[in-house]
Amino acid sequence: MTQTVFIDGAAGTTGLEIAERLAGRTEFSLITLDEARRKDAAARTEALNDADFVILCLPDAAAVEATAMIANERTRVIDASTAHRVAPDWAYGFPELKAGQRAAIATAKRVSNPGCYPTGFLALVAPLVAAGIVARDARLSVNAVSGYSGGGKELIARFEADADIGFRSYGLTLAHKHVPEMRDHAGLIHPPLFAPAVVPVFRGMLVEVPLAFDHAVADAAFDALAAHFEGSPLISVRSAGDESELLLRKSDVATDRMELMLYADPSASQLRLVARLDNLGKGASGACVQNLNIMAGLDETAGLRL
Predict the structure, then answer these.
(1) How large a percentage of the chain has pLDDT more than 70?
(2) What is the residue extent of each domain of the chain?
């Protein structure tokens, strides 16, 4: 049976990429509003309540408002904003996070889609915390660079208008809105020190977590990650080869996969854990579609870019 989907905020980058992944699929039918009706409260309210699934691609406050406009028990929601990512009554939409997470998403009425940076961080850290390799009271740092599409239309326009930008570091108040999500879903006591940056490529992301121990731990860390993601159709794990660099290229194509890499010094006690993903794929739109598939009882990779 065809199920209806309304993307609220469909004109934004995330919404457009979700629609592209749903194009041509017979399992879903998109409810669309033209430009005039998209800004009409009554039309939006009708669409929000008519849909079987609503995907919110909105700023935080607008996502909260849109959720409150749904006046029935049938419509199920995936929120791509930050608004509900640590809310106890919302399922966290990272199916690979831990045992039971996929089942929780499958039955949830409300699912909060993970942030792009947290997706990389949690994939690297949460399995190691669960395995006892990284202590819950560890004070971690995370360094990350993203393509400028992650900042939405305003940042896209800025980078495309100013070709002289080579590197943009931000979050300098150390109060980035992704930090609570990273801490809580990794099972950490202390918030990680998060140092994000944007580089002049449209899409792509590298998320790095450096770790130092007083004993050899590389093999145990790799084994824990490999075991956690064994059989995953979207997340792969590999130990370092002989590469001397990792690159984001301007020509990188869209993907909904994520690759996790572990680099270690000769003592195996100093590690660099790196996640490489598409900030618009597994970091946003691809994750939304994966969650939608799970909620609808379909193959979770249907429509994804593999």
Answers:
(1) 100
(2) 3-114+284-295, 116-279
